[in-house]
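Tokens in:
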């Protein structure tokens, strides 16, 4: 078999993933805790409807893996990458992100100083920022509307959202509300940790304090639009 030059050998292994905690790694861990999955203890799969999110994950981990475009049966397009790294998979399992985690994931063993970028990753992976105007439920007048701002994190594991709620309270002094949505037609229950307007006006400026930090653009834009059109409390 002829020898293949290192620069063209596609079988050559990529450098191992750094497991030294940084804000960038904490953000990537947040993404993997929501949308990522370990397939066999040696590989990580990361699918997402947002190609930007897959690209951002690879950039955060220092990878250049291929991104595949996949079309589901109903025509929905999503993007997927796969990373082979046994040591990194073991490290993730050691901090609480193991195989088959969707229903069982609990707390993530992350240093307190990296809780904020981790939460930004969790938000981008399976959360949302909602800013809408709704009509008030009142019989006295039909022209009364109110605007709300909400930040929420979603998981099929109640233990995970309870841990996240506790960490937000302990580290940031913010308290949220956990809502349950019962699963139907064989689907699992879903738990949503919600932070109202007052808490969101504290949380979101912390999540997006660094303009150069990794983030999903479409979610950040919801907050940026609100921030640019509303006077914020001095703490923000």
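Residues out:
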């Amino acid at each position: 078999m002829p020898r293949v030059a290192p620069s063209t050998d596609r079988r050559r292994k990529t450098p191992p993933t750094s497991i030294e905690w940084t804000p960038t790694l904490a953000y990537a861990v947040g993404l993997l805790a929501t949308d990522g999955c370990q397939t066999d203890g040696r590989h990580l799969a990361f699918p997402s409807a947002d190609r930007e999110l897959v690209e951002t994950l690879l950039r955060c981990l220092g990878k250049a893996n291929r991104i595949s475009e996949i079309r589901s049966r109903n025509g929905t397009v999503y993007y997927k990458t796969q990373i082979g790294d046994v040591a990194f998979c073991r490290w993730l399992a050691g901090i609480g992100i193991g195989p088959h985690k969707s229903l069982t994931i609990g707390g993530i063993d992350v240093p307190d100083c990296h809780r904020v970028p981790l939460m930004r990753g969790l938000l981008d992976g399976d959360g949302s920022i909602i800013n809408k105007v709704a009509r008030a439920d009142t019989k006295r007048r039909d022209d009364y509307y109110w605007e709300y701002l909400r930040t929420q994190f979603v998981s099929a594991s109640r233990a995970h959202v309870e841990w996240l709620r506790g960490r937000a309270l302990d580290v940031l002094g913010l308290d949220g509300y956990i809502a349950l949505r019962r699963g139907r037609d064989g689907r699992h229950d879903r738990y949503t940790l919600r932070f109202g307007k007052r808490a969101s006006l504290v949380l979101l400026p912390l999540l997006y304090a660094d303009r150069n930090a990794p983030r999903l653009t479409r979610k950040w834009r919801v907050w940026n639009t609100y921030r640019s059109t509303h006077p914020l409390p001095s703490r923000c």
